[in-house]
Amino acid sequence: MSHTADRYAKALFELVKEEDDLEAVQTSLNAIRDLIASSADFRMFLTNPILSYEERTALLKTLFEGKIPGLVLKFLLFITYKKRLVIIKNIIESFDELYLAATGQQRAYVTTALPIEEADKNFINQRLSDKFRIKMLTQWQTDASLIGGFRIFTQDKMYDYSFSNQLNNFFQQATRPA
User: Fold this and answer.
1) Percent share of the chain, pLDDT over 70
2) pLDDT tens for each residue of 139-160
3) Rounded CA gap, 143 and 151, in Å?
4) What does the pLDDT read at residue 18?
5) Which tens digits make up the pLDDT trace of 119-130?
C-alpha cells in the first residue's frame, strides 16, 4: 500500500470511529471495491484524467447518494477534490486492514479442487480460527486445476495442500540430479 492511501484510510477510520458507524462504512467500502473489480467502466472513470472535478462529483453523487452512508460519500468527494480518487482501491484496502485489526478478525482465502459442503467449510474455518487465535472471515472458491486438496492464503502466506502441488514437488525431487 502507498503511504498516501494509508493516511487517507486512517483519517477515514478515525472519523468513522467517532461516529460509531464502522460496520456500515466497511460494508459500503466493500461494495465500492466490488464495483471497482467488476466494472471496467468504473475503473476507467477513476483513472480518466480528462474529467473535471464537477463531472466526477456529479457522477459519484448519481451513483452513491442515498445508497451509502453520508460520511463515505463526503469522503469520496473530498478525495476527488484532492485528486486522489485514483487510489481509492488502495485506500479501501488500507481501511480494511484497520477494520480487521480493530474488530479482531483476519481474512482467509480458501481454494478447493471441488465444491465442499457447508459443514466442511465450518470445520476448516474453525481450525483456522484455532490456529491463528482470531476470528476468520473466509472466502471460498474452486479451482479444478488443483486436482484434489486445497490452498489457503492468509497473512501473506500460502498453505498449499493441493494434489497438483504434491505432484510438482515429487517431480522436482525425482528429477533432481543425484
Assistant:
1) 99
2) 999 999 999 889 999 988 999 9
3) 10
4) 84
5) 999 999 999 999
The pLDDT value recorded for residue 1 is 53
Q: What is the pTM of this model?
A: 0.79
Cell of 112: 478447493
**Contact call for residues 109 and 153 (beta carbons, < 8 A):** yes
> 135-142 and 105-112 as β-strands: parallel, antiparallel, unpaired?
parallel
CA-to-CA distance for 101 and 98, rounded, in angstroms?
Answer: 5
Cα 148 to Cα 83, 111, 121: the distances in Å are 47, 10, 16
Nearest to 76 by CA among 118, 137, 84, 15: 84
147 conformational bin, left if phi > 0, alpha if psi -120 to 50, beta if neither: left
Q: Are 136 and 125 in contact (CB under 8 A)?
A: yes
Which of 71, 101, 131 finishes a domain? 101
HSE toward the beta carbon, residue 173, CA cutoff 13 A: 6
13 plus 91 within the same structural domain? yes
State yes or no: pLDDT of 56 exceeds 80: yes
Structural domains of the chain, count: 2
Pure H helices in the chain: 3-19, 22-38, 40-47, 53-64, 70-81, 88-103, 118-132, 163-175
Q: How far apart are CA 73 and CA 4, in angstroms?
A: 19
